[in-house]
Design the sequence.
C-alpha cells in the first residue's frame, strides 16, 4: 500500500483514483476491500467508449480495460 493511500485511509478520506493505474493500485492494496453488492459495478470510468462486452470488465480508459474476476487477479489489458 502506498503512503498516499495509507494516509487517506488513516484520515478517513475518500479515495478518488485519478486514472486506471491508480484504481488498480487501490484495488490491489486492499483499500477498496469494502466494495460489496454494486460497489464493483460502480467503479469509475476514465473515458473512452464502453466495450462491446463488459463481462469481466470493471473499468476502462480510452486505450485499456481493467479486467478480472476478483481483486486478486485484477489487471489492465490493452483494448483490441
Sequence:
Amino acid at each position: 500500500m502506498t503512503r498516499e493511500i495509507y494516509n487517506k485511509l488513516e484520515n478517513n478520506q475518500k479515495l478518488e483514483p485519478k486514472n486506471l493505474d491508480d484504481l488498480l493500485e487501490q484495488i490491489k492494496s486492499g483499500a477498496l476491500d469494502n466494495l460489496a453488492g454494486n460497489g464493483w459495478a460502480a467503479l469509475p470510468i476514465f473515458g473512452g467508449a464502453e466495450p462491446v462486452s463488459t463481462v469481466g470488465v470493471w473499468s476502462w480508459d480510452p486505450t485499456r480495460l481493467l479486467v478480472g474476476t476478483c481483486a486478486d487477479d485484477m489487471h489492465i489489458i490493452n483494448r483490441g
Summary: The chain has two helices and three strands. Strands lie at 57-60, 64-67, 75-78. Helices lie at 3-10, 20-29. The mean pLDDT is 81.
